Amino acid sequence: MKTAIASRLPVLDPAIADDARVWIYQSDRPFTPEELLEIERACDEFVSGWHAHGNDLNAFSTVLYNRFIALFVNPGEMVSGCSIDSSVHFITSLEKKLGLSLTNRTMVAFLDEEQQVQNLHISELSTAYESGDITDDTLVFDNLVFTKGEMEERWLKPLGTSWHKRMLT
């Protein structure tokens, strides 16, 4: 099962260490082609100037599935509260500029039968499960992973083995 799931994940930049810290922001909808270009440009610009206590961070960004923004900082970097705050400010400025929702943690993303990313509000999860629209085998995204390695191993997993299963009433 792990191999089948891993084959659905995009390949991440090998310059990013497996123990690099990751922050994942999920959009409420797919990005338009114009938004995607703007997001990629803005993310590249942000990570190239991202710093902590006056020191540049060895940081990377990527857009995945045309719906997720991932920011990475390689290990050994001293990420501070201020640098994390600056990344959140950057993401919220993208939200405002592009009319997106990237910080709503009440949305659950999953792959539908056509392998397209869909979102459900967490309050709709039980109804979708009871109706069979999603099952224990439905692949969900766990945006709470902490490192690139965890992301590659556990970001996408069956609902039945995910923390999301606890949300079913």
Explain what you see:
It is a single chain. The chain is of the alpha+beta class and 169 residues long. The protein folds into two domains: 2-98; 107-167, no CATH class. Helices cover 32% and strands 22% of the residues. The strands form four sheets. The chain has a three-stranded antiparallel beta sheet, covered by helices on one side. Strands 2-3 form a two-stranded antiparallel ribbon. Strands 6-7 form a two-stranded antiparallel ribbon. The model has no long low-confidence stretch (mean pLDDT 90).
What keywords describe this structure?
169 residues; alpha+beta; three-stranded antiparallel sheet; 22% strand
